[in-house]
Each structure stands twice: as C-alpha cells, then as structure tokens.
C-alpha cells in the first residue's frame, strides 16, 4: 500500500517538474529520471499487477505452510512420509510461483539491477548447496529402505501362529540390527549391512550379546564425500539469509527472500526428518523473520521441529520421521519382549505382540508405498532447482549483454 | 569313506566348552520339550555322534513322515526320527560354529548338511499346520533358526571377502562357470575416443602477447586424439572375484535360506555387500564420490581429470561390473528372477544416479568454450553406454523408467550447456576487439583458435548435430538460445546437408569470425597490409575447411568458392595498391614521343630525356626498395599463397622492368655512376620478389 501512495504522490508532482525540467539544472534532471522510472512502471499498469502478484505470492506461501501446520492426521501426520511428500509438493508449487512472479514478462534488466544483482547470485549459490542436501537425504531414503527390510524380517519372524524360540531369536537379531541401524545411521552415511553381528562371528570368547552385536559398519563414503556435513551445509545456506529492509522490503527482493527462506526451511526439515550424514548442531535456529505474515506458519513449523529435534538429538536417532519414531518404540518393546521370552509365552503377552506386529506391518506398508515416491520427489526438487538456476543465469546473462553493448 | 567322518570325530573336551558361542547356546537349555530336554545342552551336542549312514537313515525316515503327512490327516504324534534329525542338525551347526567343521570344504558334506536343513525346514512348515505339541515345533524352528543364522553368517563371510581362499574346495566340485568377465569376447569399455583438452581463448591471447612469430605454430597442428593409458587397468580385472566354488556354495546357501523363508536376510546381505564391492571396485578405478558444491568450485584443470576418470569408470562399471554382477545373480539365484531383478535394480539405480549426479554437477560450472569437448565426452558416454545398457537391461525392469528419465534429463542439461558454450564462443569471437594488430599481417591467433576449435568440433560431428537439434527442437529453448544472426540460407548450397544444425552453427561462427577479421584489418594503416592480412586469414580458413572432410561437408563447396573469389579480390586490391606505383615509374609515357632522339647517340645535345631516364630508374629503385623493405618482413604463411603472390607480382613487374631496362639501359652506359641508376638486373628483381613475405627471415644478400 505504501508504495502505491508514494507513486500517487509522485504522479501528482509530475506536471510541475516536467515543465521546469526543460530549462533547469541538474537537480531537476535527477527528479526527472525518477519520474521516468515511475512512468515506465505505471504506464501499462504493470506495477499494480506486480504488487498484486507479490501480495498473492506471499499469501499463497503462508497458506501452503499453514496447511502443513494443521496436518495432524493420517495419512499426512506431522513429519510422516505423507507429510513430507506434501511438503515437497508445496515447495514445488512455491518455486513455480516464485519463478512466475520474478521472471514472467519481465525485462531482464530489472532482474540484473540492485538489489537483485546481489540477491540472485546468492540464491543461485544456495541452489548449488541445496543439491548436496537433496542427494544426502535421497541416500538417506536408501538406508530407510534397509531398515524397512529389517523390520520385514521381524514381521516374518513374529507374524506366526506359534511364537517359539526360533522365531524370537530371528526377530531379536533383526531388531538389534534395526535399532543399531537407527542409532548409527548418522555416522554410517546410510549403509547398514546385513542383519549384522556377523562381525563377531568366529571370534572365540566373544562376549557380544545380540543386543550390542550390531557393530557399526564404517562405509567407504559411497554416498556423500567423507567430511560432508548436512548440518554445516544447512548452516552455510542460512547464515547469510537476511530479510530485505527499507525500500527493498517491498520490491523484488522480497520474493527472492521468501524463496530463499522456503528453500532453506524445506531442506532443513528433510535433513531433520530423514537419515542424513552428520547432523550435529542442526537444531540451532536459523533466524526466521518476525512480524511477517507470510512467515508465521513457517516459523511455527520450525519451532515445532526444533523442539522435537532437541528431544531426540542426544539419542542420535535415525531422524524425526514419524514412522521411524513409531518403529523405534515398537522395536524397543519387541526387543524387551524377546529378551525376556520364555517358551511358551503367555497368551495375553502374545496378544500384545500381535498388536505391535500389526502396527509394525502398517509402518512397513507405508514405507513400501511412500518411500519411492518421496525419493522421486526429492529428485524432482533437485532437477527443478537446477533448471531454475539455468534460467536465472540465462536472464542475467542477457541482461549483462544488454547492459554492455559491444563497442 | 572319509567323508562320513566329518561329523564323527569329535571328542568332548572341557576346554572347548569354554569357547562356546553364547549366541548358539541361547536360552534353550533352560526349557525344552519333555522328551528331549537335553538336546540343546552343549555337552550333548558335542558328544552327539553321527556318521554319514545314520544321517541318511534318519533322513529317509523323515522323508517317509513328510510324505505321509502330506497326504494323510495330521497326526498328533510326531515320530522319533524328527527329534533325531533335529538333534543331528543341532550338532552339525554346533560343529560348524565352533570351527570343527567347515562349510565349503567338501561339497558332499555341504550337501548333506543342506539336505538336513531342508528337511527340518519342511518339517517346521508341516508341523505349524499340526495341532501337535507346540514344544516340538519350537524345537525344530529353533534348530532351523540356528542353522539359518549360521548360513547367513557364512554367506556374509563369503560376500565380504570375495578373494579370500579360506573355503578352498576341490576344483571338481562345481559346474558353475568362471566369473572372469573381463576376458574373451566380453566387451571391454571403449575408451573415449578423444580425450585431449582444448585451451581457452584467453590462453591464446596470452600467448599472442609473447612474440608474433611464435604464433606460427600456436595451436596449429590439429590436436591429435590420444588414447588414455588408463584403459588397460581393467584388462585383468575379474569381477566379481568369486571362485566358481564360492558361487556354487552361495547358490546352495541362498536356496536353503529362501526355501526356509529367510529370503529377506539373504537379500539384505547381498544388497549391502555387493554395494560395498561396487564402491570399492570404482574406487580402485579412481572414481570417488564428489559433492555437487565441490564440483562447482573445482578448478577446470582438476575437473578435466575427474571427467576423464568418470568416463572410464562409467564405461567400466556398465560394461564390466554390471555384466559380472548379472552373471553372479544368475548363478546364485537361478530360479529366483524377481530376487535378482530387485537386487540388480536397486544396485544399478544407486550407482547410476551417483554417476549422473557427477555429470549434473559438472554442468553447473561456468560454461566456457574450452569445456565443450569434455562435456561431449560425457554426453557420448551417457548415450552410448548407459542409455543402451538401461534400454537393453531387462533385469532393470523396476527402475528402468526412472533411470531413462534421469539420463535423458542429464543429457538435456549437457545439451543446454553445449549451446551455452557455443554462445560463449560466439560472444568471444564477437567481442574480441584487441586494438593492437598482429604484426606483419600474419594469421591472427583468433583465426587459428576458432578454426582449430571448429575442426576439433567436427570430430564430434554426429553428437553435436544431435545435441544442437535436441535444443532446437525444444521450443522452450529455441527462442532463448538460438542466435538469429543466420537464417537458413543453406538451400542454395549444393552438396551440403541442408538441414544440419551443426552447419548452421558453424556458419554463424565463421561469419562472426569474418566480420571480426574485417574489423581487425582496419587496424592496419597500410592498405596493402590490410589485404595481406585478410588474404592470410582467409586463406587459412579456406585451407582448414578444405583440409577437414567434415568441416568441408558442413560448409559446402559453394561456400569455399565464395570465399576463394573473395580472396582473389583481396589479391587484386593488394596488387593495385602496391605495384601500380612501381609500374608508374616504368611507364614510358614521358619518353614515348622522342624515343628516337633519346636512342640516337647523335642527339647528344639533348640531355633532358637522359635525365628523365635516370630519374625513372632512380624512382623505380627507391619505390621498389621501399616495398621490398616493408613487404619482405610481411608474413604469408601459406606457401602456395606466397608463391601465387610472388608469381603474380613477378608477372606484373618483371616484363615491364625488363622492357624498360632493355630499352633504356645503354642510354646510360656512357654515364658516370651508372650503377646508381641501374642497380638491378631484371633477374635481381625476380630474386628479390622471391624474398617478399618471408617475415624478414631472408635478409637481402648484398
């Protein structure tokens, strides 16, 4: 609104300055330049459209994340696979709208001038950084699949009419490996091998019990480079993220800032939710802008996830993914059951086991159905931002050519 | 007979009890069915004696039981042979676990063991449908679980270390083929055909600052494609390195595990270990994981090397490793197609996405001209190796669509980058406005660079054509990337591929180059030198085009003809500009009227014509000398052009001088200092003309 008032004022002043301008000195000359700018913006009414577009973009971003905030039920419970898929959908929509607001029908010139001349390259740099995060979480999904296989072993062991020592022993091995995979996921870079405990095989007098036998297996940096850290990457993406101030806060700098924020937030959420290499210190906030209506749902989401993260960080778990949280509890319960198992088990205990197994089966089913699409979506994000980067580079390139005419 | 003792020679000792595997012992000794409570006890296990025959006998009884229970209504009573066989299995597993026996040492022992496992597995399946004493089922399933557990461990041990020879077997024990997939008719990875690098334009210009005459050979000999010596590495690689015996054993173990419902354990073991094996194999090949940001920041010199490694690794992986892997699964899971497919799909997906990430990362770097050929190498690898493997690989059914899409996307990115690099080349050619002319009208480094670049580009003719078309056909890009400088005017050319996108691209660059050269020519103040410069560069361009079949084909005969007639015009300009002055000196116009009097010795009273002749000779001498002085330092590097020029000059000057010389020579015979006026014989002039355009290398011998 502010802008419109200012423009209106400028418009009123115009005739006077125009008259004087013809035979006046440099001061008025400057005014006339400003006038021309205003003129060119408002001539075809495009400026008003632009304001509307920007307001609409902000509102849509707010709405999208508000909806994510309100998701509590199946199949899109907070931080579940379904929820993450929705999150990525929303991200892709925001991204498309952002490009429309910033690029469509716009003179490349406008994009190449301050403050965008600085902000856009920063965004492009963030995009490069985001690609590594996409890859890391995508590999994380591979290790979730491995966990899913282990859970399926537990299912085939315990989903039986008779639960005897053999079944319990089989389940116990898988459960140990599963819990160990969850605990060590961070450090292993995603690969957990076998149903484990084969490390101790053959060593006489090995005191390993099933419980601790799943020795963490060091993978040979197949997935991400050895010293790569998701937390550091996210930090590098968010550290120089500053809200536009003053005049900039209403111009094109704003959608760029919104897009930056959305990008960092979404990737941060993925890293928190999925197994990912090196996440120490991920819980530290990146500064979310206050008092901006579009940012409130994101801020709320971020606070909620941060809290969850703080609770879990010390335990070094597989991530905040709802399915994993549930699975961890079930696995723990089943392992306790297995530890104290005596054949034949009491009937009511078996009932409980049955309930737990059913729930585990439900989780496995969700993973089976959801992980692959989620991984494809992450890949889609990867391709999309690469494409966006190319498009922006092209526009900047064009602007540069227009700017410096070949002599 | 010896094999029957492999389970029989155990003597209980107190010491071995302490070495027991707690895992094996588990909690079974506490409980157990009433009949055979002590079966799990370690002493019993150890003391339990089985010879081959006993095992066979019990097995037969069990078979009988299995047969009848399949047809008759369930029995409440489980026969004793079941208990005995369970006990036998327990003791066998115990011996394996304690190292008293070894799996893979003797194929018959292995088979005997696995046959017992199979029977117990069947018994367990049948008993679970029985309303019998649950403790019996508990016993058999527990026994089976221990056996499975052992098999899984053993499988992991084999998988973990393919090359170890701990489980040596007699070589006759297997029918399975060898896995040395690198040998024989197996297709080896084709080396990237052109792997040399191309300098950047700025490098050329840096070099141009040194000495103009060093430029003669600068980047001139066409870069000869070199084969990377890296290629021989995979010659002896056998992958996977499992001996046939081990493959056979893995097959037996996998079959037993699958039959007993332990398929998932088996697959998990394969998936993890084979993934690690792949990673290791590729690391040995020099390929390591690099992050996208890291690639983006990498220096080109280093990235160039990484790309070469990548090309080799991808080819090796697809042609050697994947095929080896396929064979391995075919042998280990001969009747489990879906298992092989799933395992292979997962593995291939992970590995290929990894490869593609690298390519995607490379494309994110600053797109400058010198990178083009490396990018095209990657494109070709993707197209010729990966894409084909995906399309052919029925074993990749599960991920084929996704991978095909991924590869297509990556190829498109490379194609876009190629377009961007051509734009970069165009801009570089357009924007190359150095204000210092190349000395002596020599070939400009830009000309050399561009022509060599285009010639080299023709090595990738088909790929480039494909790439450019891909971008042109993409509407989205066509309006953004395609420069409108040249509309298709190829139609008039005969013998030219009419619709070649590459030809259009090459034309565009040639045109830009010509425009730029014309601009550069203006930097010379001497009009004649302008013509020489244009001739030199024009000649070089035409010769390059004619010398390269592909380039010639793209540009067409008509283009060459046009260029050549253009050169003739420059030649004419040069002749007029330089030599008409000389011819003017030799004109007999002023002398024509009174030739007879000049020639007549008696007309000695008239000194004026004699003086005129003297002046004419003097003017000719000085004009010619000036020209000689400047133009002998000019450069014409093309020998043919040089001799053409000299011949044309000689044809123009020599006859005129000869006749002038012939007519007026004796006129001055009587004069003093005749040498001053008649410095040159026509032959001298001829010789001197032969020294023109030598870049000042042949000094006039005086």
UniProtKB/TrEMBL annotation, chain A:
Membrane topology listed for this record: Single-pass membrane protein
Location relative to the cell: Membrane
Record's compositionally biased regions (Basic and acidic residues): 189-212
UniProt region (Disordered), positions on chain: 189-213
Pfam families found in the cross-reference section: ROH1-like
GO cellular component, one term: membrane
InterPro entries: ROH1-like (IPR008511)
Keyword field: Membrane, Transmembrane, Transmembrane helix
Transmembrane parts of this sequence: 252-274
Family: Belongs to the ROH1 family.
Protein name stated in the entry: Protein ROH1-like
Organism, scientific name: Arachis duranensis (Wild peanut)
UniProtKB/TrEMBL annotation, chain B:
Sequence ranges assigned to domain Exocyst complex subunit Exo70 C-terminal in this UniProt record: 309-691
Superkingdom of the organism of origin: Eukaryota
Single GO biological process annotation from the record: exocytosis
Keyword Protein transport: yes
Compositional bias ranges of the Basic and acidic residues kind: 603-612
Known function: Component of the exocyst complex.
Protein name, per record: Exocyst subunit Exo70 family protein
